[in-house]
Amino acid sequence: MPSLVVESGKDKGLAIELCEDRVFLIGRGSSCDLHLSDTLASRHHCWVESRDRKCVLKDGGSRNGSFLNGRRVSEAELMPGDQILVGETLITFQAEATASTDPLIGKDIGGYRILELIGKGGMGRVYKAMQISLERVVAIKILSRQYATNAAFIERFRREAMALARLTHPNIVAVYDVGESAGFHYFSMEYMSGGTVAV
Question: How far apart are CA 102 and CA 174, in angstroms?
Answer without folding.
Answer: 26
